[in-house]
Amino acid sequence: MKLNIIYEDEDLLVLEKPAGVIVFPEKEKTEETLINLLLKKYPGLKDVGKSPRYGIVHRLDKETSGVLLVAKNDKALSFFQKQFKTRKVIKKYLALVEGILKESFGRIETLVGRSPKNGKKQKVYLPFEPRLKGKRKAITEYQVLKRFQSYTLCEVIPKTGRKHQIRVHFSYLGHPVVGDKIYGFKNQILPPGLKRHFLHASFLKIKCPDGKEREFKSDLPGE
Question: Is 11 part of the annotated catalytic residue set?
């Protein structure tokens, strides 16, 4: 796998993550990960952060493609992570979802936590439900870009960064991300040639240690 670098300076590496690649290993997974490839090209990342993340600032799901930030030193890693925690980073995704969204704009605000029935899934919880300890607020905004016969293309702006947030939120609306094997409909019909879920991190804006705000963009991959 070739690393497609969007931007690089002494503090930051920005790359386009391809779909189908895990960012960093969890538990006992042995398949090739993005951090392993990065460590071969940038061995100094072993001194940044902690294993197995090292300098990875944030994460994208295995089948999600797009903009990913990697810090090249501990000071930069702390600087960037603080902005994610305080919600000062602007992120935009492109998502194709099942069905036709009637509203041109929307905001989804719920609690999100692990599903009690399946540890690999997240679940939406509402404020009046019992057993809400450990559930975290999740906010997703979206704008419809185009409606097709059976699908809707959206620009999605997550205001929080919960695991699987966009995917679980659109599933909660009854419009799961097309191709999503975990949150999608059973026996869903995919557009020709699509072999993964249609979610792409297309834009990210963040302040850098030199004081400048920078924007990074990634076009939709060919598939």
Answer: no
